[in-house]
Amino acid sequence: MNSEPAPPGIDTSVPHPARRYDYWLGGTVNFAADRASGDAIAAAFPSTRTAAVENRRFLQRAVTYLSDQGVRQFLDVGTGIPSAGNVHEVAPDARVVYVDNDPIVLLHAGPLLSRNTTYLEGDVRDPGEILARAPLDFDQPVGLLLFSVLHFLEDSDAPYAHLRTLVDALAPGSHLALSHGTIDHQMPEQLEALAPIMASTPGQFRSFAEVSRFFDGLDLVEPGLVSIAEWRATTDLAPGEVEMWGGVARKP
Predict the structure, then answer these.
(1) How confident is the model at residue 78 (pLDDT cuts 50, 70, 90)?
(2) What residues pair up with 249 in beta bridges, in sequence order?
(3) Rounded CA gap, 76 and 56, in Å?
(4) Are 247 and 178 in contact (CB under 8 A)?
(5) Pairing relation of β-strands 244-250 and 175-181?
(6) Which pLDDT band, with edges at 50, 70 and 90, does 67 fall under?
(7) Is the pTM higher than 0.90?
(8) What is the average per-residue pLDDT within 194-210?
(9) Cα torsion at 64, 66, 72, 78 (round to 10°)?
(10) Following DSSP, what letter does each residue of the chain receive, concatenated?
(11) pLDDT at 5 > cutoff 50
(12) Which of 129, 206, 126 is nearest to 163 (CA)?
């Protein structure tokens, strides 16, 4: 539990996805509102913490795969609070740009800044600003990462258009890797329990078909769009125990 005072200028009375995710991963950069929100979601959706852990493992496998394909630049949008096993640790020789819209992320990322690692305060809803500020060579392949972030955008936020802006800026040979929350495997009684949480939390779960649309025009690599726990991994977890779709695709 975080006992530190709130950093100046940061409203900790409203839960934030980055801090809530940090709480689910067992971190300490979270506050009472984040923990209350996290507990409420976990009560209605008991596999939430499992999904958070599996999402981080999927990221690590995806980054390892992209590194093996020769990708040496990564743009991680919605990175969250720095924690063990993040992109710069999996690909230590790569150029990594982390982006998040919570200023507390930048505050805690400060000690990790290096010649190869940069943190920007930005929002996926403003992809042009991200592209303008990211110190990457967009004439060379980039690994674009959006893990557990697009489901915080409703359709009215134009998530497909924003992602397309980012992808269009990438050179051929770049890759998109993303994960996205779903409720495809929930039973009616589970959906009923989730309804109040979904109504009070900005965002939108999407179906397999809806998540597939994010990869339009790209070549999905094997095994395609699957449960994040199944992507190039052996697991005993059923998709309903994770409820996140994930995939990696190459820009031709």
Answers:
(1) very high
(2) 176, 220
(3) 13
(4) yes
(5) antiparallel
(6) very high
(7) no
(8) 77
(9) -80
(10) ---SPPPTT---SS--HHHHHHHHTT-S---HHHHHHHHHHHHHSTTHHHHHHHHHHHHHHHHHHHHHTT--EEEEET--S--TT-HHHHSTTSEEEEEES-HHHHHHHGGG-BTTEEEEE--TT-HHHHHHH----TTS--EEEEES-GGGS-GGG-HHHHHHHHHHTSPTT-EEEEEEE--TT--HHHHHHHHHHHHHSSS----HHHHHGGGTTSEEPTT-SEEGGGTTS-----GGGT-EEEEEEE--
(11) yes
(12) 126
The one-letter amino acid at 190: Q
Q: Centre a 10 Å sphere on the Cβ of residue 194 and count the other Cβ atoms it contains.
A: 17
* Pair of tokens at residue 87: 């992109």
| C-alpha to C-alpha distances, 54 to 41, 57, 152, 198, nearest whole angstrom | 17, 5, 18, 21
Query: Measured between alpha carbons, how far is residue 182 from residues 9, 83, 174, 205, 206 in Å?
Result: 33, 24, 26, 5, 5
